[in-house]
């Protein structure tokens, strides 16, 4: 074999095709990374990166460390910040194709499985912003790929690798614990229960718990603030869904065109003779579904469970095509996924300019659900929360500059939520604004900094609310933006003077874990 032919084989191999699809995923995210603006939660995670700790009110420490490292290695531009989650999602595409290969699939199976990830709206959306979710997808995919290797090659030592990945995954987001619970159920209900007698499984479990231990100790030290956060979010924030509503919203979030593929995946794990060895994965999926239904979880929490179904379902579909001798169906299926993905992509990531998206959404007669109880405006919440932040900070800066120099020197800026506070922290440097304070979630734990509270600019709270802590409150400006969430539109910027007590004494009044 000549060197040229060897190179052609390498660049045209199944692995190369999967890498190309992964690179396409990465490039698409990078191209549209700056179409709108920073997402609300991205400001918060950047702020968390400035307060490194073993835990935060609403999440473990991994995302804060990722923000810290990203900012120092790449910067905090939208492209830099969103490159990392885009890379994580691209790796999920690659891993899904590799799962399909390990299950016995050829090139078409691998491509069909990888494409299913690429066109799934929830995965596309959550891979586009800097948050825990893209990393959660990656850790699930890595863990499930390792499980497939263990089952296929009977390599119990890989449970140690599984424990390492699961432990780091827990430090990113608690929801990977549902994977662990599903794994236990699957082990008990299938012949894979033999691994319960393996020391490697218990060593892996111990390693995962050891990695997670510092966060548990942080929760104990801080009186378990996350439990309060979860309770409040469940009661007041997350929109309740019936089991049928959860399933329907999940089908929509995974792209309805992939429904036959993941249903075929369930058939593979539970019914097909070839899938008997991997039935554990089917029980993981069912167990996680039941757990999410019983805990009122948002549907996108369920997204990481689907790559293993697409991998198996693509294998089933390839077998049907081969047995029925309908090879022409392969390009049809690939083409349908690509076209369907393009049609739905504008609802998952900022592909279109704002006004064009609004017209497109109205023409389609569809607006993506937010999963929360808040009323939306012209844009769905996911896109609305990418608007208005720079304009808000500019207004706050004008109010700040209007103060006499002696008041500016001791002025604190209080924001009603962490999106506002984080935007002021990031964009306020341009105007010389002091760091913001806020009572929401981890901002509350960080306290009032060194501010006395003698003079305070309040963003987003009403005059009536401010008068609970201050004797003199005047509205200096009103922030308006037609594209933001309604609760971020027409919000006041108040100047508060003559506090009723020192700010440190007033601080407990600001606490909101939600």
Instruction: Kindly report the average pLDDT value.
Output: 93
What separation lies between the terminal Cα atoms? Answer: 63 Å
Count of helical segments?
Answer: 25
Number of domains: 2
Ranges where pLDDT stays below 50 over 5 or more residues in a row are none
The total of beta strands comes to: 5
Inertia-based shape: globular
Beta-strand share of residues? 5-15%
Helical proportion? 55-70%
Strand order of the largest sheet: 2-1-3-5-4
Protein structure class: alpha/beta
Q: In words, what does this structure look like?
A:
The chain is an alpha/beta fold and about 525 residues long. The protein has two domains: about 5-345, no CATH class; about 390-510, no CATH class. It is built from 25 helices and five strands. The chain has helices at about 5-10, 15-30, 40-50, 60-75, 80-100, 105-120, 120-125, 130-155, 160-170, 175-190, 200-220, 225-235, 245-255, 260-270, 280-295, 305-325, 330-345, 355-365, 380-385, 390-400, 405-410, 420-425, 440-445, 465, 505; strands spanning about 410-415, 435-440, 455-460, 470-480, 490-500. A five-stranded mixed sheet has the order 2-1-3-5-4. The longest helix has 25 residues, at about 80-100. The chain starts with a helix and ends in an 8-residue tail after the last helix. The model has no long low-confidence stretch (mean pLDDT about 95).
């Amino acid at each position: 074999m000549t060197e040229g032919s060897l190179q052609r084989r390498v660049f045209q191999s199944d692995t190369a095709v999967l890498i190309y699809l992964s690179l396409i995923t990465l490039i698409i995210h990078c191209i549209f990374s700056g179409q709108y603006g920073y997402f609300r939660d991205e400001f918060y995670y950047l702020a968390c990166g400035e307060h490194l700790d073993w835990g935060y009110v609403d999440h473990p420490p991994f995302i804060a460390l990722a923000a810290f490292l990203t900012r120092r290695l790449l910067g905090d531009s939208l492209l830099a910040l969103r490159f990392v989650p885009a890379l994580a999602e691209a790796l999920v595409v690659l891993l899904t194709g590799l799962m399909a290969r390990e299950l016995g699939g050829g090139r078409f199976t691998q491509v069909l499985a990888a494409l299913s990830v690429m066109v799934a709206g929830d995965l596309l959306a959550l891979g586009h912003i800097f948050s825990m979710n893209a990393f959660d997808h990656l850790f699930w995919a890595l863990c499930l790929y390792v499980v497939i290797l263990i089952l296929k090659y009977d390599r119990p030592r890989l449970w140690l690798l599984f424990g390492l990945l699961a432990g780091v995954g827990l430090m990113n987001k608690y929801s990977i614990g549902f994977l662990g619970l599903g794994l236990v159920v699957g082990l008990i209900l299938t012949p894979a229960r033999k691994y319960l007698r393996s020391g490697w499984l218990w060593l892996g479990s111990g390693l995962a718990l050891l990695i997670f231990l510092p966060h548990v100790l942080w929760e104990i030290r801080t009186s378990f603030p996350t439990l309060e956060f979860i309770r409040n979010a469940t009661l007041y924030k997350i929109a309740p869904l019936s089991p049928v509503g959860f399933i329907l919203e999940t089908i929509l979030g995974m792209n309805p065109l992939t429904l036959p593929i993941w249903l075929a995946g369930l058939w593979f794990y539970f019914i097909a003779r070839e899938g008997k060895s991997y039935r554990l994965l089917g029980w993981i999926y069912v167990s996680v579904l039941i757990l999410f239904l019983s805990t009122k979880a948002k549907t996108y929490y369920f997204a990481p469970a689907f790559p293993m179904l697409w991998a198996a379902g693509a294998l089933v579909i390839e077998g049907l095509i081969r047995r029925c001798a309908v090879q022409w169906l392969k390009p049809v299926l690939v083409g349908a996924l690509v076209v369907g993905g393009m049609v739905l992509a504008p609802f998952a990531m900022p592909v279109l300019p704002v006004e064009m998206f609004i017209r497109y959404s109205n023409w389609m007669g569809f607006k993506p659900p937010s999963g929360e109880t808040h009323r939306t405006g012209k844009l769905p919440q996911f896109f609305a929360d990418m608007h208005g932040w720079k304009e808000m900070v500019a207004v706050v800066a004008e109010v700040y500059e209007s103060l006499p120099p002696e008041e500016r020197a001791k002025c604190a800026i209080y924001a009603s939520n962490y999106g506002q506070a984080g935007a002021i922290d990031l964009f306020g440097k341009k105007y010389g604004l002091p760091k913001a304070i806020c009572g929401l979630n981890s901002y509350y734990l960080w306290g009032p900094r060194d501010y006395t509270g003698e003079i305070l600019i309040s963003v987003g709270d009403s005059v009536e609310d401010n008068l609970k802590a201050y004797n003199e409150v005047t509205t200096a400006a009103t922030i308006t933006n037609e594209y933001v969430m309604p609760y971020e539109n027409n919000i006041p910027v108040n100047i508060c003077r003559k506090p009723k007590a020192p700010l440190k004494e007033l601080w407990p009044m600001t606490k909101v874990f939600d």
